[in-house]
Here is the input.
Amino acid sequence: MMIRFPLLVLVLLISTVRYRMAKAETSLESGNGYTLDSVREALVRQEDTIVFCLIERAKFPINSHTYDESYSKIPDFCGSLVDFVVKDTEAVQAKAGRYENPEENPFFPENLPPSIVPAYPFTQILHPGASSININKSIWKMYFHELLPLFVTSGDDGNYAQTAASDLSLLQAISRRIHYGKFVAEVKFRESPQDYEPLIRAKDREALMKLLTFESVEEMVIKRVEKKAMMFGRQISLNSVDDNNGNHKFDPSVASRLYQKWVIPLTKEVQVEYLLRRLD
Here is the structure.
């Protein structure tokens, strides 16, 4: 019984994390209010989602046919299998109302169908100009050209549809985290409008970026994400009393690099773009 304890703990931990993530996100979306503390808590929970999605994508090798337009040859469709999966999934999710939520941003917003379900009264905290901010094209390019080669193995196991689906889950998690910068910027602006208004009127991007940057906080986030990747991605062995053996489902440093090189800088880019529209 004792040797099964670490596995049971991990299962319970994952279940608890997922439950708390879902419950807290529902609380935010139901209009209980956005504060600096609630926004920070949401960002911390999104770290968990991103790490779990990294683990899921690392299960598959690169499976290059997923991204090869000449391989898929889907009737009446021009693009790769991952293009097809993302576009069709977003269309279905749009009909189900996903993009009525201001926290969500599609990768292919062109010609998305309208929602066909009853509208939910999401809290409208953001300035209307927020809807024009969508940097998913940059996220898409970064993901496939820079991030993916860092943590997936070479090879082909034929699971192209599953690979594309795991790509989409990770892309959406990263996009949600980066575009959450709109909410961060709005809450910070409301707390200290006197600090932001002169810089916004002057269109001073550099000064706004400096005002938004807290290097000590960023370093703490980067370290925490890597530690989560180490914990959540640990390989559990029933024959070992000590499971802290450095055997992981993917390199934990990839998570910290993702945040350091892309997530944090792009989030601040979104914040600056939002603030520049805030007084329009």
